[in-house]
Model the fold of this input.
Amino acid sequence: MQLDQIDLEDGYLFHLKIASQHGWLSAAHRIESPNCNPRPAGAALELIGIHGISLPPGQYGGSAIDALFTNTLDPAGHPYFEQIADLEVSAHFLIRRDGELVQFVSTDLRAWHAGLSCWRGREQCNDFSLGIELEGCDNEPYANLQYETLLSLITVLQAQYPSIPPDAIVGHSDIAPGRKT
Done:
């Protein structure tokens, strides 16, 4: 199944297309992360995990998130980077403050976004989820453009993967309580 456009309630058309054989969204800026691997055999997508990220913390723009997800973050670039430069993490998607959509991992693969996690008694959420990062932090509102892109993206993902029900779109804190906010 491929979707060329989605009609949202307010009439906004967002042109997105997922190549079903490869799991890449045609409208997204593609930056491939090595931090992924195949999902377990028979694993169906049943969850979308939404995360927040800013690098350095509380700062927006730049290429630090891309560098983190591609294992090229310079530990000397900022004091905080020394703590995280060796992490091997990724998400399927990133929505920048201006609404730009970036894809790091094919939806066919397991991105490393959830870490130690549990959803409805099932551990290892990366096995059956898609990860979406919003550029931002807990103490500031996200931008309206981010919400518009997020709504369009979720609409397309749920159409592409009907195994993801509306009540399985959760924040990172829902799958890692006590560890994430």
User: Anything to note?
Assistant: The CA atoms of residues 48 and 169 lie 5 Å apart. The two ends are 35 Å apart (CA to CA). DSSP finds four helices and twelve strands in the chain.
